[in-house]
């Protein structure tokens, strides 16, 4: 996407992407520190696993439905 812009716009795009990446990873680290005490319990790990499994099943079902659409 950035390759289609002029040089000045490419520099701005690269700086914006780099700063967004830094902000994302800083927020991720801060968030992990906040929820770390919650994940000292096995029940929270099981809940997280259940949420991830549900998301994966929805993604799989969506993919299957897009590959094999219902006959009209």
Write a concise keyword list for the protein shown above.
single chain; 72 residues; mainly alpha; 76% helix
Structure notes:
The chain has helices at 7-35, 42-67. With 72 residues, it is mostly helical. It starts with 6 loop residues before the first helix and ends in a 5-residue tail after the last helix. It has two helices and no strands. 76% of the residues lie in helices and 0% in strands.
Short description, anyone?
The protein is mainly α and 72 residues long. Helices cover 76% and strands 0% of the residues.
Number of strands: 0
Strand content: under 5%
Q: So what's the overall shape?
A: flat
End-to-end gap: 38 Å
How large, in whole angstroms, is the Cα Rg?
20 Å
Poorly predicted parts: none
Continuous helix count:
2
Helix/strand order, N-terminal first = HH
Level of helix content?
A: over 70%
Which structural class matches the secondary elements? mainly alpha
Biggest β-sheet description: none
Mean pLDDT metric: 91
